[in-house]
User: Which sequence fits this backbone?
């Protein structure tokens, strides 16, 4: 038996009603079941056409509709045909017809399969049972989007009964956001055919919103008309919420990482440019007046402009204001405007994004963002280029800025403290500094007095720096001799506190054997007299000062010292002795200032600071 004969034998024995037709529509062979159902033998059916065995209406429908459509498409599905048996009874079937071709495209035959309507109804009932009980969210809609069937799982998810759902539009069960783009377009969307994983939001009967992914497939009849659309949905609410929480967590991690990087960069710079002067030291009237202004403005939100010569300690003043303010727990970020190249000012102030300019290999946080919630200290503010001053003014006024290369506007809460050693009013007149920016910065000016106006503080500062430097160098601090004290007082200190600190540090470096070599670090005109020289003339109290001389031993040096209170008291007694010797004449030849070798203004400041008053006559 060859393959063709085996095929025909299997075809005839197949448990389906089927026929094979030639290219003219005549029957070549039939299955045993169809022949039996029709009541004919196989030989009686061969050569006949199926429409000859159909009822008159079905025969007409086959001839006028089905055959032309089949010739056009080569396939028909779901056609209703009524056949008449040998005994004259009728039965209705649904016909599926398919043309088959060989490998070269040549026509072989047409296969027709018949499903009796009663059998199909049984299958559809079974299909419906399976459809409803499947553990998936399924629903079927007609061409207008009305629900014709739903699965039990769909009903369980949304909390409805079947009779509350059937016949209603699927849009009734969606959120406004999901429904809005679909309204009036259901037929258009359904006619597009297959769709996969479309995000939608549905509303349960209790009002809860669930996220779903919908996939659909549209079924059409032989005339390409839409019959229905099958839709499968997947509840992704938990997944979406988990992804949203994960996204928030990643955002928080990125924010914390950025904060840590900002703090790291700032701390590195703080280590690199550490505080050189320590705390504010002194008790002179000039310093006291400045401290009073610091106390007045510190706990306010006002911008402060610190004005003073180079080396007077303007940065210390900024630290003092910040430490006494309500922002003390926030950062104090310093920007040395004199050390920034003009082309990098904007990036330094506001930061930049990667690729904003050549060399911008990563995002960088600017100093204003770094100082958010705290204080920013703009040292040497007069060095800011005039073209950038407008952007700085905007940050002060609106508290907003953009990074270089970024169009995102950021808000910042920063208090501004600026410092300068220039006359900004003259810079405004010369057109080198914006007048509006000047008035924004100088809401409350604080003048830092130069060290020459703080003569009473020189020795206290010298002792403070001496202890600090020796502690850093791992040495024991030597005592200042009387001659060194006078030399420090005589010097005018054009470099102010910074110069004093440098002088003390050089003296410690040059010292050997416990003796402080101040004579090698001070300018020659101010160096002290040689060792063993007598105390200054007109200073009867000098002999009572327990200060060591250059030839003193290390034991003597460690045993002889004065506390700060004792030093002030000795200084007070020394000044009173000089005033008594000059009959309380301060200036002029023979006056107390002349006898002490100091300026009359300096002596007047010290008399006021030490609260010395001339005794009443008699």
Assistant:
């Amino acid at each position: 038996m060859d393959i063709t004969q085996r095929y025909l034998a299997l075809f005839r024995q197949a448990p389906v009603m089927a026929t094979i037709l030639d290219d003219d529509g005549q029957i070549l062979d039939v299955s045993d079941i169809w022949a039996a159902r029709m009541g004919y033998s196989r030989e009686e059916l061969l050569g006949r056409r199926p429409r000859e065995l159909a009822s008159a209406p079905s025969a007409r429908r086959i001839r006028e509709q089905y055959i032309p459509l089949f010739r056009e498409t080569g396939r028909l599905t779901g056609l209703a045909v009524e056949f008449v048996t040998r005994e004259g009874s009728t039965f209705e079937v649904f016909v599926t017809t398919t043309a088959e071709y060989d490998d070269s495209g040549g026509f072989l035959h047409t296969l027709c399969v018949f499903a009796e309507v009663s059998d199909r109804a049984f299958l559809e009932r079974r299909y419906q049972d399976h459809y409803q009980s499947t553990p998936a969210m399924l629903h079927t809609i007609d061409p207008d989007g009305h629900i014709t069937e739903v699965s039990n799982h769909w009903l369980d998810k949304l909390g409805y009964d079947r009779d509350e759902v059937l016949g209603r539009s699927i849009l009734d069960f969606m959120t406004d956001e999901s429904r809005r783009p679909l309204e009036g377009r259901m037929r258009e969307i359904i006619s597009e055919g297959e769709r996969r994983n479309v995000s939608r939001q549905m509303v349960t009967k209790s009002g809860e919103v669930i996220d779903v992914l919908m996939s659909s497939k549209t079924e059409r009849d032989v005339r390409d008309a839409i019959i229905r659309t099958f839709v499968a949905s997947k509840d992704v609410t938990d997944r979406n919420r988990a992804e949203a929480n994960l996204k928030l967590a990643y955002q928080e991690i990125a924010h914390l990482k950025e904060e840590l990087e900002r703090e790291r960069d700032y701390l590195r710079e703080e280590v690199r440019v550490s505080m050189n002067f320590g705390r504010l030291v002194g008790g002179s009237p000039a310093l006291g007046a400045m401290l009073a202004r610091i106390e007045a403005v510190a706990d306010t939100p006002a911008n402060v402009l610190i004005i003073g010569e180079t080396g007077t300690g303007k940065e210390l003043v900024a630290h003092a204001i910040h430490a006494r303010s309500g922002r003390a727990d926030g950062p104090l970020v310093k920007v040395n405007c004199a050390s920034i190249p003009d082309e990098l000012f904007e990036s330094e102030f506001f930061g930049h994004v990667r690729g904003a300019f050549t060399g911008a290999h990563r995002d960088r946080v600017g100093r204003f963002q770094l100082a958010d919630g705290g204080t920013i200290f703009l040292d040497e503010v007069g060095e800011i280029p005039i073209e950038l001053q407008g952007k700085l003014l905007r940050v002060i006024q609106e508290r907003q800025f953009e990074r270089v290369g970024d169009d995102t506007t950021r808000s910042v809460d920063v208090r501004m403290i600026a410092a300068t050693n220039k006359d900004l009013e003259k810079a405004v007149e010369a057109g080198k500094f914006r007048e509006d920016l000047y008035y924004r910065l100088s809401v409350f000016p604080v003048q830092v007095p130069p060290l020459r106006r703080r003569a009473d503080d020189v020795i206290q500062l010298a002792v403070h720096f001496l202890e600090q430097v020796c502690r850093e160098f791992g040495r024991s601090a030597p005592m200042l001799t009387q001659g060194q004290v006078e030399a420090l007082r005589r010097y005018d200190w054009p470099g102010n506190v910074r110069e004093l600190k440098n002088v003390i540090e050089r003296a410690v470096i040059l010292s050997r054997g416990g003796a402080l070599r101040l004579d090698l670090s001070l300018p020659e005109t101010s160096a002290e007299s040689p060792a063993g020289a007598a105390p200054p003339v007109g200073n009867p109290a000098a002999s009572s000062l327990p200060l060591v001389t250059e030839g003193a031993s290390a034991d003597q040096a460690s045993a002889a010292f004065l506390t700060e209170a004792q030093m002030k008291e000795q200084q007070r007694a020394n000044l009173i002795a000089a005033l008594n010797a000059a009959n309380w004449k301060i200036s002029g030849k023979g006056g107390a200032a002349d006898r002490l070798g100091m300026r009359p203004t300096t002596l007047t400041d010290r008399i006021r600071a030490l609260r010395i008053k001339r005794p009443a006559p008699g």
Observations:
- The first strand starts at residue 17 and ends at 21.
- The domain at 3-121 is CATH 3.30.450.20 (Beta-Lactamase).
- The first helix runs from residue 3 to 13.
- The CA atoms of residues 490 and 548 lie 19 Å apart.
